[in-house]
Write a structure and sequence with these properties.
This protein is of the alpha/beta class. Helix 4 runs parallel beside helix 5 and helix 7 crosses helix 8. It has 13 helices and 13 strands. The N and C termini lie close together (10 Å). Strands 3-6-7-8-9-10-11-12 form an 8-stranded parallel sheet, with helices on both faces. A 3-stranded antiparallel sheet has the order 2-1-13, covered by helices on one side. The protein has a two-stranded antiparallel ribbon with strand order 4-5. The radius of gyration is 19 Å and the shape is globular.
Length: 357
């Protein structure tokens, strides 16, 4: 008899075991395709490893330091392990790891770090943006993409070098499925394949929109038209995409989860979108409070989207425990109850991730 569970890299768990959950993080990935040259005169401060002498420059220009963008080397893995041990000690229960195809997903490391720390890790299938994919991938049909996502959820991925009893590692979510603007033909097929997979398996999915306010709306239009269910879908990065509260409320009416996943990122210059800006944690909290006031508390998720070294504690960053230690206590100042905080950080992730396995 099939039962509802949440699929982690170490097997299914009951929703009660999930606990406090970060729904959009990375533990190992490649991000060097987002490298940006530093301003003239600052090259020497971003060319080396992170130290007390240059960490201020790296925080301001994180995508100008190639060492910072290498989020899969031994230094990163050691720091991530330490960070997750701290996250666990502060009350963290689970993490959804969003490194999909195109970001050099490392299922072996996800399994090992989960086993060592006790943190439940949920891995994703799906594809990142067109620009990081080889031609052999961008030429795949919707049916081929759908077959891949379905296989990695139902039957898992064979991973060498892990405990023999582990078997194949199954993915527990489709995502992050990413697109640029305008959305390319391949990215549209990936969105449609995600919807078809979701409609058959009733699995959770998560999308990465481009930095245009039209992007989340267009992604959901394509997804819904292809048969995907809104209440099983997360739209990531709304805190750097929808700045106007009316746009945010209009999007929430579509019924998806609205994710604020850049907590801890506070920078006066946003390298990936210089014409815009990066919201502060205070602005994120204010927008969450607006959604709560309008009755959307059961559609809100929170995370950090850590994907560079400088945000890890060992490199002087805030780490995966930032929301737990520095943000949650501020909800009371916004008039938000502890029950609502539990809904956002515990119940909502469990509702989203639970599926029949």
């Amino acid at each position: 008899m099939s039962t509802k569970s949440i699929m982690t890299v170490r097997g299914p768990i009951d929703r009660k075991a999930l606990g406090y959950t970060l729904t959009h993080e990375h533990l190992s990935m490649v991000f060097d395709h987002f490298y940006r040259a530093p301003p003239a005169g600052l090259e020497e401060y971003t060319a080396n490893k992170i130290s007390l002498q240059n960490v201020g420059f790296v925080r301001q220009y994180p995508y100008s330091c190639k060492y910072n963008l290498n989020f899969e080397d031994e230094d990163t893995h050691r720091a991530v392990l330490n960070d997750l041990k701290m996250y666990r000690s502060f009350g963290g229960g689970s993490i959804v790891e969003n490194s999909s195809h195109g970001l050099n997903r490392n299922l072996k490391f996800l399994y090992e770090v989960s086993k060592e720390t006790g943190v439940h890790v949920i891995a994703g299938t799906g594809h990142y943006i067109n620009g990081v994919q080889p031609e052999s991938v961008t030429s795949m049909s919707t049916e081929q993409l759908c077959d891949l996502y379905t296989k990695e959820i139902l039957f898992g991925v064979e991973v060498e070098g892990i405990d023999p009893e582990a078997g194949n590692i199954k993915c527990g979510v489709v995502g992050e499925v990413a697109s640029c603007w305008p959305i390319s033909a391949f990215e549209k097929r990936a969105i449609q394949a995600t919807a078809e997979t979701q409609s058959v398996l009733n699995c959770p999915v998560t999308f990465h929109p481009h930095r245009e306010k039209e992007a989340p709306f267009e992604i959901i239009r394509l997804y819904l038209e292809a048969g995907g269910r809104a209440n099983r879908c997360v739209m990531s990065h709304l805190d750097r995409t929808l700045f106007d509260s009316e746009d945010l409320l209009e999007f929430a009416k579509l019924g998806t989860y609205c994710q604020f996943d850049l907590f801890g990122t506070e920078c006066s210059y946003y390298q990936l979108n210089p014409s815009s800006y990066m919201q502060s944690d205070e602005q994120r909290l204010t927008n969450i409070a607006k959604l709560v006031a309008e009755g959307f508390e059961k559609q809100i998720l929170m995370s950090h989207d850590i994907h560079t070294k400088h945000r890890l504690i060992d490199f002087g960053g805030h780490g995966y425990s930032h929301i737990l230690n520095n943000v949650l206590m501020r909800f009371s100042a916004k008039g938000i109850s502890s029950d609502t905080v539990d809904t956002i950080t515990v119940s909502n992730p469990a509702d989203w991730l639970e599926m029949t396995v």
